[in-house]
Amino acid sequence: MAxxxxxxxxxxxxxxWMGTYGDMxxxxxxxxxxxxxxxxxxxxxxxQIASSFSNNKISVMTTSSTSILEALGNGIIxxxxxxxxxxxxxENKGKEEMDNMAENFKTYFAENDLQDKIxxxxxxxxxxxxxxxxxxxxxxxxxxxxxxxxxxxxxADELLKYPDNHIKIEGHTDNMPINTPRFPNNWxxxxxxxxxxxTYFTNNKGFSPDRISTEGxxxxxxxxxxxxxxxxxxxxxxEIKVISKYYNNEL
Length: 251
Prior knowledge:
Blueprint: H1 16-37, H2 43-52, H3 68-71, H4 87-111, E1 118-122, E2 126-131, H5 146-159, E3 167-172, H6 186-204, E4 212-216, H7 229-235, E5 237-243
Parallel strand pairs: 3-4
Antiparallel strand pairs: 1-2, 2-5, 3-5
């Protein structure tokens, strides 16, 4: 007698494990998104994230000035776009700021008989106040001269009118070697001079230290070839750069 053939039941739809797997992937996605967002807690950001999961859907919601991706933090987008401000408008604001500041410094220096001691240069991101050789320091020294303190005091009074602008102080030398117990090379000398100016500003004129940075370039950023005594004098200088508030984080 032949055996009765067993019927095989074929289930319709997705395999049972697919539903569980889909749920697990969705939960993992939600978990990591929330973990990433929590690295910078912000009530408005959290509200935007929560709204993107409404109706059990995952979507990218766009607000008036930033998308949900931007709301997750600057690990994805470093700078949210500000509505109504294009890159060109941003650059124009920086240029206008530097133009006005440079004119103000030139006028101020003329009124205080400093125009022959300090040059004012500018670009769209910062202005440079260039102290000519011998104005602030004796040769081979990083100690401010007494008359230099009077000059720096006047410069500081004008700088204090721009509290939102970072100040970068740079020391430069010519290529004539120096080797003393205090300054083994020109790097040490140029750095010490920039620090002396910064210290005067913070200790005597009330500047916040987090607003100022210093650098010593030694002989390695000359303005002129070191082939004559006149050119070497040009290269021996201290520069104060006043950074545009629109570019404070980029220099």
